[in-house]
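Budget justification note: compute hours in this period were largely spent on complex prediction jobs such as the one shown. Inputs:
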Amino acid sequence: MRKIRLAASGILVLLAVMSIQAHPASAIETSGIGALPAHPRADNPRTKSIFVYDVTAADIVTDGVKVVNNTDTAKIMAVYPVDSQASSDGAFACAQMVEPKKGVGSWIKLAQDEVTLAANSSQVVPFTLTVPKGITPGEHNGCIVVQDAAPATQTAGNGIVLSFRSALRVAVTTPGALESELSFVDVKSHDINKATLGVSPILQNKGNVSSDANIYIKITGLLWLHYPFADSGGQFPVFPGTISRFNFELKKPFWGGWYRREALATYRKPLSSGQLSDNVTTIRGKTTIIFIAPKPAALAIEIFVMLVLIVLVAMLARQIWVHHRLRHLPTKPYTVRKGETIDVIGSRFHISWRWLAEINHIKSPYTLHSGMVIKVPAGQGKPGSAKNNPRTGQPQGTPPPAPK
Amino acid sequence: MGTNKNPGVIFLRSILSLFLMAVVANASVGNAKAASTPTFNQTINAGVLSTDILDASRVPVASPSVAMTTKSFLFSCASGASASTGTFGSGTQRIYVINPSGANNGWTLTMAATAGPTAVWSDGGTNTYDFNDATTAGCTDGVDTDTKAGQLTVDPSVSTLTTDCTSCVATNVTKGSSAAFVETTTNSVTLLSAALASDDVWRGYLTGVTLSQTIPAEQPAASYTINMTLTATAL
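Corresponding output:
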């Protein structure tokens, strides 16, 4: 009986553990509400995500937007067209529902402006796009937007009350002289934090159609064998008539120092609607030398190495200077007396015994013999005037221990 | 146990027998069906690009909002370091972008006033101030359509971008620069831009977008709100 109770308790504990472990998997996987083109074209993969039309003035296009509710609750969703607008950094954005429509937003007429969708369901809303007469050649952009029709609510207090929406770009290109003329306006660098450097190329499109520009950023060390420490970039659209800024984040080099910053972009110019030139056009931004501060650990190492180098150079310079000075010092012959050692003679003439050894080519153990003639500084000291050996403190004449 | 000769009982027994035969027959038919190739239908809806404020368990936050620091009444304009500030996106209120292959050519996440460039901060009554007047950094009413001063600056460049999927990366997704709303010039601020080469299946979130609102001089004391809309746009 006791065994059965134990087994039952074990099973209960196991079930409890399993229920705890299973809990994270029950986290909600929100996918939200949004839209897709209802009838993507096989000849243009982009039409799986957005609406792309190559049309002429006065054309009327019939299409549909698939409104999707991928949440677990039924939704009433507003669907509406708006004009596009340039956001900060020249990015693509869609105007708000209340803003007056003057461009592509006014060309689109949806069959419904509100859709009620059950959980995890979708519905196609047909629409027509009527291109006005006398439209200028080039690319015209707008949006079809989907959002929860329920108004945003505020909890309490001051602040920003938020709403959310999902939009699809509607790109309409009308034939004529199509141009895409990209140029670099500037390239900026700034510290984001201790580890990250921000590099922002700024491009302008003076044409009338957008271009997908491949943008490259390269930072090359000047003092460290010119190794490239960071490359970044990507393919971003540059919309007609906009100045677009792209913010890349690069990992800062450990050592810091002076670096060459280069930026270039490649793109293909349009030939006609939907057709791009095979030739790739390359444009370059201004190459600039920038200083990147080293990381703290690198700075400490660099300061230490610098100090060691300074000390070594100073010692070497002093050595050279002393040698130069002593080599050009006038000398006179001196006869070693009995019992005199090299350091006794050096102190007598106020000169290092090492110098005496060097200019007289005396090798270790630096033994002098009575009667030996050596060179000593001219006009310094007097023979027999030294009272004590400055090195040993012993009276003169006491032989020093052999220098090691 | 004798045999019941009652006609009613005999009728009921006959009905019961027929019912049992039908059940047996159905069961055998059912077995025969089970032996054939079964058809299972499963529909997975197409993924769509979307944005929302979710908590750490990816549950949508009900009525998300961004609180701004409270300021006392001032005779002078509160701008720069003394402006009202706030942080958009936190550990419990993450600014999510979810792209389950709904936008394969790149996308943007932008922020704009729901009421458009003529929107104002309002206490619900007559007291208002502007969010997009650039004159003297928002301290003076400029030549815009309203007669209010005030300017909101959004800085996503200092925020943290975190990916939240098994295999996607933040490469080719860039944060926007610091930008102030300016009527007609900057009606929308870019928080994120995804390049053409960004992962088609991508999920990630922003935290720590800083906000700074210039409060005009002698603005009446009240609680002010403004409605803003986050838009995820497929390019």
